[in-house]
Amino acid sequence: MGPQVSDAAGLLDLWERASSLGPIKRALALAEAGGGDARTLLDQPYGRTGLHILDLRTSLFGSALEATATCPRCDGRVEFAVDAGWLRSHDARSIPDTEHRPPTAADLLAASRSVDPCGELRRRCLGTDDLPAAHVALLDDALAAADPLAEVLVDLNCPDCGTSFVSDLDLAAFAWAEVDARARHLLHEVDVLARVYGWTEPEVLDLTESRRAAYLRMATGEPA
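RE: above sequence
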């Protein structure tokens, strides 16, 4: 099943559904819009959610994810790009069948409701929260390797001060920021064109992107 958002109206519907959701439920909504099955996603390792989010993001905006990070030393702005295909190639093909497992979306939702989120995750995924710190660190590394898209870490170098650092690329937050920006731009187009031409929202959204842009320029007096 491929991405389910294929037009401007579908993007606005997704934006409306997901706007009021918390981070995990929003990620699930994005993944479902990217072709994932809602019930299956709950019980799969959380990184599999990222695969469907990448499918959605690629269908809407292309495969190049252009992002920024802040240098921890000089607070400089560091721009970088990551290719969705490269990220997919790092997904684990199988999850080891052991007593310890990577967190699922259901685990993260349960942890978010707990007074002790870290302890809840360890109890659910490691079987206990009473392990030596060194043992927990090794298990965390192993589970991260088993589900690499659950936390995407990018090695960066600051062009201003030369500092090397690691930045966390949150796929769900990144994709949502783009969906939110596109949706708000669409709403602006609908508002302007409805006021000027008397068109309804469906009539505006049925126009191709290039036609909406052309009418918007004429409505606002911008050069063609």
